[in-house]
């Protein structure tokens, strides 16, 4: 029986293995399974468990033994020596015994969503920004000092021609009322001048009188 494949297992065989496992465990725990109401609830619980997938009858028997152990523990806690249908119903309501819907959901394999990996698109080349020029500390300090300097203010008295050899204070001026004799012969550049002879100077020739000039002179004499 243990070597029977899942494809040859029938629902009746699975229910029989489950019921056998439950009753064997109850009897071993000192619980009397032969009760009318208890057997009715146990049949419903076995039908629910039979909806699950079992590979062999041994797996079904082990599932029945696990259910029988839970029933025995609750019966001993309540002090009930016989199989109580209320205890089995409590296991059904609390989910200790899977329902048909839960059994079908568990039997279905989970679907895995296909993951589509798209090829990475080529990124546009990034134009690097020009790196900032590094200013030496000495140059930066000189620039800061130059910015703090104020423009020099010059008084009019401080200005003088660029080609002046001496100031007015250094020149010797004659006193008031003092006569200064200037020797023209000592003046530089006069040696080059030629002495002109008065006889050599000729008077310009008179220009001839026009008719208008003669008429004007006659009018003046008549007056």
Uncertain residue ranges? 99-110
The chain-level structural class is mainly alpha
Secondary-structure element order, N to C: HHHHHHH
Largest sheet composition: none
Q: Helical content, roughly? A: 40-55%
The whole-angstrom Rg is 71 Å
Instruction: Give the strand tally.
Output: 0
Strand content: under 5%
**Number of helical regions:** 7
Question: What average pLDDT do the residues reach?
Answer: 70
Distance between the termini: 184 Å
Broad shape? rod-shaped
Give the tags:
single chain, mainly alpha, 43% helix, 0% strand
Give an account of the 3D structure.
By secondary structure, the protein is mainly alpha-helical. The protein has a domain at 6-107. Helix content is 43%, strand content 0%. The radius of gyration is 71 Å and the shape is rod-shaped. Mean pLDDT is 70; it is low at 99-110.
Short description:
The protein has helices spanning 11-28, 36-50, 57-78, 85-93, 100-107, 137-148, 211-222. With 223 residues, the chain is mainly alpha-helical.
Write the topology of this structure.
Blueprint: H1 11-28, H2 36-50, H3 57-78, H4 85-93, H5 100-107, H6 137-148, H7 211-222
Helix pairs in contact: 1-2, 1-3, 2-4
